[in-house]
Amino acid sequence: MNLRKMALAGTAAFAAIGAGSGALADCAFENDTPVSMLSAGFEAWKAVSDAMAECGNFEAELDQEFRTKQPAAFAANPSLYALGGVSNGTVTPLLNEGTIRPLDDLVEKYGEGLSPNQMIRVDGKIMAIAMMVNTQHLQYRADIFEDLGLDVPTTWDEVLKAAAAIKEAGVVDYPLGATMASGWNIGLDFINLYLAHGGQLVDDANKPTLNNEAGVKALETMKAMTEYLDPEYLVSDSTYVQQQFQQGKIAMANLWASRAGAADIEGESQVVGLVNTAAAPAVAEGGAPATTIWWDGAVIARNITDAEAEAAFRLIVEGMDEEMVKANNEAAIWLIPGYEPGRLAEGAIATMQSNPPAPAYPSTSAMGLMHTAIGNGVTDYLTGAKDAATTLTDIEAAYTTAAKEAGLITD
């Protein structure tokens, strides 16, 4: 009982329960097996879970803290959820603990409508069904840039110069938004900048390689950004920045492509038609975008019955079909047949087609521990509690302790 309370507490702004309501005409089968899902809370997952709910007997928990809750929830026997929404950055703990099942047999039986690029294989087995690719790209108020005669930034230096001009003009509350909430979000922002500077997070022996010029430059860029952010930036996650855009409070942000469509939601957004997108800024002219490429998709728990797994997979197929995509075309960069890229996908596509390319987020155990150490340590530099060198040294020490405990470093 306590575990289930832990898994369901603190749902984010998009949290929703998607129980079937009799709208089964849009579903190819009537689901008579209860199925539950825990996933992130962005618009694409809402669209997919709504489509799943049309089949009946389905409950979705859309929660921005899903990544911290899934490992324990899926390790329970029986699992607290049949389905999990994951990405290449969040699936690793489930793989390591063996709490999700291979899907090859279910794909063979029910996956005829899925595309080959949706099959996420690990050691030759299909372990997840991807629905979309995602990345952070630059979202900006096209009207403000046009009014002030500003060029769309292509580097972080240009972002900061544009932010200074917007701040001087006083046309929005804050020129810039950023996903700098303490923990996972701020950790990823550092990682994106650090990798773009050519940094390597760990060596071949899983030892940290963070305390260097690339690490200092990444910290300095983040510190420079804070001059143009809401002073409460340490609680600013993706939903926070999305709402800042919708409320007309910011002029630009390097935000997830999966959030772009929210700017055009009638009745919810004050900036419908005013937000455009461009490739994520590089750290230097001609460099790779300072971001990482992700996929998002669904996994099925191991600790459930075969009947529940079969029902869950059929819901994946229903939730990720062409009908759902056509109804929610702008919600994501879909990997599903029927997707037609629109205006708000241009930035993500430009990011993914860049040369040199942005890297895929490394899905490794070492990366998970390093991400946590960075997310816990970066704020000390931004708040002035530590200088750059001390911050990086302490992050390396925290990672090393965790990596030794996990058996990733043996000497």
List the helices and strands and how they pair.
Layout: H1 2-8, E1 35-39, H2 43-53, E2 58-62, H3 66-75, E3 83-87, H4 92-97, H5 104-110, E4 119-122, E5 125-141, H6 142-147, H7 156-169, E6 174-177, H8 184-196, H9 213-225, H10 238-246, E7 250-256, E8 275-278, E9 293-300, H11 306-319, H12 322-327, E10 333-334, H13 346-352, H14 365-382, H15 388-405
Helix pairs in contact: 1-3, 2-11, 8-9, 8-14, 14-15
What does this structure look like?
- It is a single chain.
- The chain has 411 residues and is α/β, with parallel strands linked by helices.
- Helices cover 39% and strands 15% of the residues.
- The chain is globular and about 60 Å long.
- 53% of the residues are buried.
**Termini separation:** 40 Å
Q: Helices and strands: which structural class?
A: alpha/beta
What is the helix fraction of residues, given as a range?
25-40%
Q: Poorly predicted ranges (pLDDT <50, ≥5 residues)?
A: 1-24
Strand and helix order: HEHEHEHHEEHHEHHHEEEHHEHHH
Average residue-wise pLDDT: 92
Round the Cα radius of gyration to an integer and report it.
21 Å
Question: How many E-type strands?
Answer: 10
- Assembly of the depicted chains: single chain
User: How many separate helices?
Assistant: 15
Strand content: 5-15%
Largest sheet: 10 strands, mixed
Name the overall outline. globular
